[in-house]
Write a structure and sequence with these properties.
Number of helices: 19
Largest sheet: 5 strands, parallel
Distance between the termini: 40 Å
Strand content: 5-15%
Shape: globular
Length: about 625
């Protein structure tokens, strides 16, 4: 761990004044080993807000004592820490102290790894020869978050890999999506890799360009680009049983070519292929029509009349971002959405806090932990169905009903002068039944004089606007279709053919993709699908955390294959089906199978195929150490 001496030119007491007390306490614990910092009167009060009060609910005199202790500790530079890795028992006490709440013991090893106190990477028993490694090339499709995580893991092990990306730059969703207001809805200190240099985030919820720049920096730091082939699209791939490898067809600027790899990985995730809605008369519209995921920098919004179809996460970011720039915005809503208020959503991170994150030992690790925890597993127990709950139409349990009331009160407070909008904006389904959204002045935007929320269904497009079923024409110059993605396709759209000519699109027919641990599919040897079925975070968390769990699993599988002379692994049908039964049984107890709504987590048959039903700590444990007894093994 790098311990940096605080810079003399900066006023350390001023920086400390902007620090989070609960994090400063953990710094003191590491540096001194004095366990009194974990006990009253220093113990912080519990705060469940996504961005907690940095004073931690402690009296001013106790805060001064803590800050003074930190300043004195570093007055002559950075001393050697007494504790680097706390071990599981002390780690658990420290987590409970900083949060002011009970934490289950199983989180201790996870967070020691997540915070870099112990190594996450799998290890070689005996490092293999370069010739042996060269026979286990990995082809990764897509150059977003998942491929970067996996590339770093493989690179550290010396396993050769190539990333192919159809676009002209890496970044995945953060390269493709560039609509106004585009940003992350997870605190970005949680939406960041556990490894590498710490990024100086400018705000708690970063915007698209800052996220893209971060991914580019990580790629540069870990030499990802030397393995990256841009403007290269996978058009098909098939398993060659005799040669025990994947033969992939790649389309490049120079034509078609074939590429052989022992391992094939889909890193395109779930939200990558836009699902544009189609409307009668759309060919007659004289203005510009586009899907929000295909936004062009050439679009001029000044003074335009804009129609936005859809009220999901994209629309909630887009509409507030453009409302003051355009002549008018008409929002067409099919379903109202629950939106969670977040104090400080757009606030910048102060210079003093930035300095502490960059220079104070152990500060960034515990700050990141606090963000990780607040958007982690805490919500999941409140999303379980209570069979004795008498009002299942509005909530799934008593706590969920309390959340409903809190969110309804928030909507009413935002729209207090517009009862007509309240009626349109309060959803009928239980909170968190669909992806929960974060309010960034969405409701305040709806009451602006140039914004209209329409709940009548669209009948057709006319030459100069949209006509609803009541016969009313609302003029538009630009129509933005914000209707989501073809979530159920996932890797099936890559035209992958496994053993015995079985195509993944056929295997995943009827919008019903399944995979063991969300990663492997029977009859598709040495194929891994990252962020595959039932591995998407839905109750909180971060795609980046999932990508690191899956990267460890994939790289650990490859290590075992090389060390034990295994040419191919193919998950057994029995193991796959048993796991899917467990997933489905768990989802039957959770909110996303509630019948009173539609959600992209669920297919037309009502099965939840996208969202993960497990706690993050459970999925981390499931994917940490592969059990190859669950696979058919072909020896080299």
């Amino acid at each position: 761990m790098n311990i940096e001496t605080p810079r003399k030119e900066f006023d350390l007491p001023s920086a400390i004044d902007e620090g989070d007390i609960r994090v400063l306490l953990m710094v003191l614990m590491h540096m001194t080993g004095d366990e009194r910092w974990l006990e009253p009167p220093y113990r912080p009060q519990r705060d469940v807000r996504l961005i907690p009060d940095p004073q931690a609910g402690l009296p001013p005199e106790i805060q001064r004592e803590i800050r003074t202790a930190v300043v004195q500790l570093f007055a002559s530079g950075a001393p050697k820490p007494v504790i680097t890795d706390p071990g599981n028992d002390l780690m658990l006490r420290m987590m409970r102290a900083t949060l002011g709440e009970n934490v289950a013991p199983e989180y201790a090893p996870l967070m020691r790894e997540e915070m870099g106190f112990i190594c996450r990477d799998p290890r070689w028993t005996t490092p293999p020869s370069g010739d042996l490694l060269a026979k286990h090339h990995v082809l990764i499709v897509g150059a977003g978050v998942c491929s970067i995580a996996l590339g770093v893991a493989l690179g550290r092990l010396g396993i050769p890999y190539t990333i192919v990306e159809k676009n002209d730059e890496l970044g995945g969703t953060w390269y493709v999506n560039r609509y106004p207001g585009c940003g992350v809805d997870t605190p970005n200190h949680s939406y960041s890799f556990s490894f590498g240099k710490r990024n100086p985030w400018t705000r708690y919820f970063a915007q698209r360009q800052e996220l893209l720049d971060y991914l580019k920096k990580v790629a540069l730091e870990h030499d990802i680009r030397s393995h990256l082939r841009l403007n290269t699209e996978l058009t098909s791939s098939h398993w060659d049983e005799s040669r025990r490898c994947w033969i992939s067809a790649l389309r490049t600027g120079k034509g078609e070519e074939l590429f052989e790899s022992t391992i094939l990985v889909s890193a395109i995730g779930q939200l990558n292929d836009p699902a544009p809605a189609h409307f009668e008369g759309e060919e007659n519209f004289n203005g510009t029509t586009l899907h929000s995921a295909l936004w062009s920098d050439d679009i001029k919004l000044d003074g335009k009349r804009v129609a936005v179809i859809g009220t999901g996460a994209t629309a909630m970011q887009l509409v507030p971002a453009i409302a003051d720039q355009v002549a008018s915005v008409t929002v067409y809503q099919r379903t109202a959405q629950w939106s969670r208020p977040v104090a400080g959503y757009s606030d910048p991170i102060s210079d003093g806090a930035q300095w502490l994150l960059a220079h104070l030992p152990f500060y960034v690790q515990w700050y990141r932990f606090n963000m990780f925890w607040r958007y982690g597993d805490g919500l999941l127990p409140f999303l379980r169905k209570d069979p004795a709950w008498p009002y299942p139409d509005r909530a799934v349990n008593k706590n969920n009903d309390r959340h409903r009331q809190e969110l309804t009160d928030f909507i009413r407070s935002e729209l207090k002068d517009r009862p007509d909008l309240v009626e349109k904006c309060v959803p009928t389904y239980p909170p968190y039944g669909k992806r929960i959204l974060l309010d960034n002045n969405w409701f305040k935007t709806l009451i602006k004089p140039n914004v209209e929320l329409v709940t009548d269904r669209i009948d057709h497009f006319a030459r100069d606007g949209i006509v609803t079923t009541d016969g009313k024409l609302r003029p538009a110059d630009i129509i933005v279709i914000s209707t989501g993605f073809k979530v159920s396709e996932m890797a099936a759209r890559l035209n992958i053919t496994g053993r015995d000519g079985e195509n993944l699109k056929q295997t995943w027919a009827n919008d019903n993709p399944t995979a063991y641990l969300g990663l492997t599919v029977p009859n598709f040897p040495n194929l891994f699908v990252m962020l595959g079925p039932n591995s998407g975070p839905a109750h909180g968390g971060s795609v980046i955390f999932q990508s690191e769990c899956q990267s460890r699993y994939i790289s650990a599988c490859i290590v075992e294959m090389i060390e034990h002379g295994i040419a191919a692994i193919d998950v057994s049908r029995e193991a796959h089906d048993r796991y899917i039964r467990q997933v489905d049984a768990e989802h039957e107890q959770l909110i996303w199978s509630h019948p009173g709504m539609t959600t992209y987590y669920r297919n037309r048959q009502g099965r939840v195929f996208s969202a993960m039903p497990w706690r993050f700590v459970d999925y981390w444990a499931m994917t940490h150490d592969p059990d190859l007894s669950q696979y058919r093994q072909t020896m080299a």
